[in-house]
Amino acid sequence: MSNGNQSCLFGDGAYFVVCIFHAFEEWSGIGPVEVYLSYLEYLAWVFTPLVVVFILPFLIVILLYLSILFLHVYKHKNQLREAYSNNLWDGARKTLATLWDGHGFIWHGYEIHGMEKIPNKGAALIVYYHGAIPIDYYYFLANVIIQKGRIVHSVADHFLFKVPGFKLLLEVFSVIHGPQEECVKALKSGHLLGISPGGVREALLSDETYPLLWGKRKGFAQVAIDSKVPIIPMFTKNVREGFRSLGNLRFFRWSYEKFRVPMAPVYGGFPVKFRTYLGDPIPYDPNISAAELAEKTKQAVQALIDRHQIIPGNVLRALLERFHCRHKEK
Questions:
Q1: Which parts of the sequence belong to the Phospholipid/glycerol acyltransferase domain (predicted)?
Q2: What value does the mean pLDDT take over residues 25-47?
Q3: CA 130, chain centre distance (Å)
Q4: What residue spans of the chain are helical by DSSP H?
């Protein structure tokens, strides 16, 4: 043993390290260290894809924060102008819209079918299916700014207004937390307004079978009636294949129902094909009730799902659609 130690001491650096490993093996009695290193390497190889799919959703959050940073820089650069002038943010909105449109084109091959149904002027209520992360809606907003030169006011859940740093972004892009009076005010002022009746519940608890989780919500329909505006149904194909939620697991479902906080993990970020479809506008009808209009709108969105989405959704198939166009027919 003493001869071995002496050889280690007088050997080169690499040999000395090998000796240390062998000494550790003898001392601990755990066997060859190389076996455990190989096992760790195998575990790293197995779990790396899982780590990646959970990290990718955070890239969207990073992009949102970069958008906020740009707005702050833009605001500082133009601080001599009138602080809340509409013209102050026109350039910022168009620049960010261009960035988001580019992201959608590159990462998802994003397309919109039926953009001509969005009026060039005048009010309309856009009702859409809510994905786990509504990134398709962000792309849609960007395209409306670029193609129509219009801003779509949006209704978002209360928790979004509590996220640190989001206040400026929500203000600049006219996001409101959704009181009916505010929605009616926006529409009567001639603006476009986007809302998802399913909201956070649909985002977390819906899945690749694309169920509409609207419950008995009819407030959006009453808003359309009070504002005397048409409703435009909207759905994005493969939105659930881009990002998926673990909200259907018992613990996350219970925590949402109990605390109304969206804590369910979201994974994905897959570069699947996104196609947004806009249905025919549902015209204002003074003789229809809010419940009837809500049901009619739900059927219109469901019809878009039935016509364009293959159910259950499949990530691999949605990825292949980037290269091979396959449309589902009714």
A1: 111-235
A2: 60
A3: 9
A4: 2-10, 13-28, 33-77, 90-108, 135-143, 167-172, 180-188, 199-205, 219-227, 239-242, 250-259, 290-308, 315-320
In terms of Cβ atoms closer than 10 Å to its own Cβ (0-12, 13-18, 19+), residue 99 is middle
Q: How far is CA 82 from CA 71, 77, 138, 145, 175, in A?
A: 15, 12, 28, 22, 21
* Cβ atoms within 10 Å of 255's Cβ, excluding its own: 17
Distance, in Å, from the CA atom of 85 to the CA atom of 79, rounded to the nearest integer, reads 11
Instruction: With H, G, I as helix, E, B as strand and everything else as coil, classify residue 291.
Output: helix
Residue 100 identity (one-letter amino acid): W
pLDDT at residue 248 in the model: 86
The pTM assigned to this predicted structure is 0.77
Instruction: State pLDDT tens for residues 219-257.
Output: 999 999 999 999 999 999 999 999 999 998 888 888 888
DSSP three-state, residue 83: coil
| Pair 9, 15: CB distance under 8 Å | no
Residues catalogued as catalytic: 130
Q: Is 51-320 a CATH 3.40.1130 domain?
A: yes
pLDDT of residue 5: 47
Average model confidence (pLDDT) across the chain: 84
Place of tokens 């990290």: 55
